[in-house]
Amino acid sequence: MLRDDITTAIRRALMQELAAVGYGRLSIEAVARRAGVSKTAIYRRWSSKPDLVLEIVAAAAQGKVPALDTGSLRGDLALLFQVVSRALRHPLASQIIPDLLAEAARNPTIDQTLQQVLRARQQEIGGQLVRRAVQRGELPADADPEVAVDLIVGPLYWRLAVARTALTDSYLDNLVEAVAVGLGAKSGVPHQRETAVGT
Q: SS3 for 111?
């Protein structure tokens, strides 16, 4: 029987090693050293480096997201922006995500897995957000969940992972309003968040 504490240590070590050296230089030996386990312990759980990386990244992508049901589209968007921006600002995520996306351009297996996992998760979240807004009468019935996801994730990823520019409260407030209107909501007073996201 595989011990859960060892599996947890391997998962943590893998994320730290990915952030430190990237996928190309990642080795099972280094992960084992960082986790304080043998290579055999890793190979009992995963058959190869790609299997190890993709399963753990997929699990991280499926992490729990708070119920996005604040009672309004703009409130839901503000909450989701907080969640996404915190995730993208995390030291591990900010280093691992760009590296894996670059690797995906060279590795079809990684590309396919990332597309399946990330897109499915994004569509689930975007679908829920849009569906509730349509039911409340805030968005037209033909509002597109995929467009919603692109409008939500795109600006945050660009600003945090590519341009590496700090988020400000006013930027996020303006972004909430821009996305809401872009999806078809009537223009209104920019949403004011109750808690600051920070920079």
A: helix
Asked if residues 73 and 178 have their Cβ atoms less than 8 Å apart, the reply is no
Give residue-wise pLDDT tens across range 160-169: 878 888 888 8
pTM of the complete model beyond 0.85 = no
How far apart (Å, rounded) are the C-alpha atoms in residues 148 and 78? 13
Which CATH code is given to the segment(s) 62-182? Answer: 1.10.357.10
State the DSSP code for 193: -
Q: Is there a contact between 133 and 164 (Cβ–Cβ < 8 Å)?
A: no
Q: What is the pLDDT of residues 12-46, one digit of tens each?
A: 999 899 889 988 899 999 999 999 999 999 999 99
Write down the architecture of domain 4-47 according to CATH. Answer: Orthogonal Bundle (1.10)
Three-state DSSP class for residue 13 = helix
